[in-house]
Amino acid sequence: VKYFKKGSYSTTKPTNTQTQATDQSAVAIKNMSFSSANLEIVKGTKVIWTNEDSINPTVTSNDNKFGSGQLKKGDKFEFTFDQAGEYAYHCSSHPSMTAKVVVK
Question: What's the CA gap between 39 and 44, in Å, rounded?
Fold first, then answer.
């Protein structure tokens, strides 16, 4: 356990990259975007996308390794990343919605 003296810590601005080192990670779909446009995870992590928007998006990998089909509000899609690499994906119904998962 580390103890910090008052004023000995620092804050950083949040970035649009989220790093997860657990066996699962969540991505929310809202405001016509993926909540973590750049997600970094470890091999073997399951990513769960949840549609929190009124649109019916898809989660479609650019290389066709995974695809959700259209997700209604409240629907979930999950995919486990078993190999290291970069996985770009998009919404096939809304081309401006793009994101990436980096697996280490």
Answer: 14
CB 89 within 8 A of CB 62: yes
**How far is residue 3's CA from residue 30's CA, in Å, rounded to a whole number?**
38
Q: In what order do the strands lie in the sheet with 85-90?
A: 17-19, 38-41, 98-103, 85-90, 60-61
State how far the alpha carbon of 67 is from the alpha carbons of 14, 34, 62, 64, in Å: 29, 15, 9, 7
The answer to whether 58 touches 70, Cβ cutoff 8 Å, is yes
Alpha-carbon gap, residue 53 to 30, rounded angstroms: 5
Q: Is the pTM of this model over 0.85?
A: no
Q: Which residues of the chain have pLDDT under 70?
A: 1-22
The residue written with tokens 């997860």 in the block is: 20
